Amino acid sequence: MKYTFDVPDMSCEHCKSTIEKALSSKKSITGFEVDLEGKKVHVETEEPAEMVQKLLDDAGYPAQIYM
């Protein structure tokens, strides 16, 4: 599945790097793109969206699934 999340608190390269590190830590995430300007994170995984959302929240960046 492909999911897109709004991450409104993401504002700099450090934010982007922190999110990339968190996403890279999960082997079940097969691909991702962090869009700093758009404040969105695109994730490809077989895991439920809630798992990715919790991962982003735990990294310090509350996220909402983008519909």
Automatic annotation (TrEMBL):
GO terms for molecular function: copper ion binding. InterPro entries: Cu-bd, Heavy-metal-associated_CS, HMA_dom, HMA_dom_sf. Keywords: Metal-binding. Residues 1-64 form the HMA domain. The keyword Cell inner membrane does not apply. One of its GO terms (biological process) is copper ion transport. This is Copper chaperone. It comes from Geotoga petraea.
